[in-house]
Amino acid sequence: MDGNSIKASQLAGTFTTDQFACAPPKLPNKNWHDLPAIQLECRWIDDLDELLGLIPAWKRLAECCLCPNVFYEPQLFIPAWKHLREGKVRVAVVQASERAQPGAPKVLCGMLPLEISKTTLGLPLRSARVWQHVHCFLTTPLIRSDMASETLYKFIDFLAQDAGGVAILNLPFVSAEGPFQHALVDFLRAAGLAWQQKDIFRRALFVRKSNDETFFDEWPRKRRHELNRLERRLEESGKLLIEEFHVGDDAEQFADQFLALEAMGWKGLGGTAMAKTEAHSLFLKEAMTELASENRLMGLTMRLDGVPIAMKANFLTHNGGFAFKICFHPEWAKFSPGAILEKINVTKLHETERVQWMDSCAVPDHPMINTLWPERRMLQSISIATGRIGSRTAVEALPLVKHARDSVMNLASRWLGR
Predict the structure, then answer these.
(1) Phi/psi at 383 (nearest 5 deg)?
(2) Domain spans of the chain?
(3) What H or E segment, with its residue span, contains residue 404?
(4) Is residue 180's pLDDT more than 80?
């Protein structure tokens, strides 16, 4: 694909503008105190204490960003920074002085956590990649909706000029539709910068219907009947109970139960369960505790005779949420407790008016959730030239280099397989 073109079909998607953007509430007073000044500044943050001091402005940014992303909100980002950060990760922030109150705290217009590499394609061209830890399922940066173009320009200019001359910015797992995509494409075209879309895919999405029965009517009849049958069989096996996590409940205890149950399943056998690593366990406990304190942890536990056999954790944001993880007891796998809990989850989501949509955070071809959540959201991985010398050539050469690399690897694999 041409570095300066994107197909129209890639700009269209399930979401409408109002589902993605949450613009700052405009007050009638023309001296609205939260209106950013036009002059922006960009700087690095490397210190945890400085990140903690930024939380009030950070939360405000999350309320009015182009594309909600709970993984880059402080409730999840701070625990990830403390426990999951490996190597050199820096946070670039764009701020503006408040126009009506010059002496007031600065307005945060954008945040971009980055890993910097000194080479690109084997050449001495510095590149930056948005930081994505193992439990981060979306890397769309938080960009204030009423300062999108200005903030994007400041980020790119800062990377190219003031951050050691970064030539390429890599954005993996970012939104490929809605206001963020529109603002990004408009900015790149206006700035004349080259880019390459390296990958594009769709994953399951929950979008609220008028009620849960309307939602269930879209399920394949055979699948619906099968889940109902399995649920009846579970109820015949013992006392089946669904517990909801409520405000005031012990979030750390919920996290401990989730970690223990996940470790019993295939992730435990494969060594990828969060409980296998102390840092991952601490991340989950702290993240759930922070979210629970703001009534943003939606947890469901299915118990059979008092024993947890399936659990689900959703992380809520301002008008939607992210289905973080689900786990189930392997001894009851034949009854599909995870799928049954997902059916119950749909009902609970319809009872929660604040949730208009929920990202599944699943792989594109997930066999369970794809049949239960009919809508899709579109994501992409994209590389952007910052305008440095050689950056356009490097970005435009990415498809050719990837093809050559894949060809060499295929040949080597075939040769070794002889």
Answers:
(1) -115, 135
(2) 8-201+379-416, 209-355
(3) helix 398-416
(4) yes
Q: What is the pLDDT of residue 405?
A: 62
The most distant pair of C-alpha atoms in the chain lies apart, rounded to whole Å, by 75
- Rounded to whole angstroms, the Cα distance separating 324 from 245 reads 15
Q: Is the pLDDT of residue 104 over 70?
A: yes
E strands present in 49-189: 89-98, 107-117, 126-130, 142-143, 166-175
pLDDT in tens, 262-291: 999 989 888 999 999 999 999 999 999 999
Separation in Å, CA 24 to CA 3, 177, 263, 274:
33, 20, 42, 37
Q: What CA–CA distance (Å, rounded) separates 156 from 145?
A: 17
Please give the CATH topology (third level) of the domain spanning 209-355.
Aminopeptidase (3.40.630)
- C-alpha distance across the termini of the chain, in Å: 35
Contacts made by residues 400-406, CB under 8 angstroms, sequence distance 24+: 401/121, 402/198
Q: Model pTM?
A: 0.88
